């Protein structure tokens, strides 16, 4: 992925860590949906998720509770 593409995606979700988490979560859900429907995926789920962010189809909503939980998990990894 080109640097210009990353900057364009970050105009939609301005935090690179939240962007990464959002794309990863969406990709996981796409894989689950494909497994449930028994239909093969046409493209890599990460590419699909990135395209959805770029098109404005994927938006995130973070609650304070989720943010605290994520930060606590991160501090456990660092220690």
The CATH topology comes to Eukaryotic RPB6 RNA polymerase subunit
Number of domains: 1
Number of strands: 0
The total of helices stands at 4
Overview of this protein structure:
By secondary structure, the chain is mainly alpha-helical. The protein has a single domain (3-78), classed as Eukaryotic RPB6 RNA polymerase subunit (Alpha-Beta Complex), CATH 3.90.940. Helices cover 72% and strands 0% of the residues. The chain has helices at residues 3-12, 16-37, 45-54, 64-78. The protein is flat and about 35 Å long. The relative contact order is 0.14. Residues 75-79 have low confidence and may be disordered.
Topology:
Layout lengths: L2 H10 L3 H22 L7 H10 L9 H15 L1
Helix pairs in contact: 2-3
Fill in the keyword field for this structure.
disordered C terminus; 79 residues; 4 helices; mainly alpha
Q: What's this model, at a glance?
A:
By secondary structure, the protein is an all-alpha fold. The chain has helices at residues 3-12, 16-37, 45-54, 64-78. It has a single domain (3-78), classed as Eukaryotic RPB6 RNA polymerase subunit (Alpha-Beta Complex), CATH 3.90.940.
């Amino acid at each position: 992925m080109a640097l210009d593409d990353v900057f364009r995606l970050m105009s939609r979700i301005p935090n690179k860590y939240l962007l990464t988490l959002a794309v990863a979560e969406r990709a996981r859900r796409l894989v689950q949906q494909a497994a449930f429907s028994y239909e093969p995926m046409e493209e890599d789920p990460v590419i699909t998720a990135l395209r959805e962010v770029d098109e404005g189809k994927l938006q995130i909503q973070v609650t304070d509770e989720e943010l605290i939980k994520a930060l606590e998990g991160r501090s456990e990894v660092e220690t």
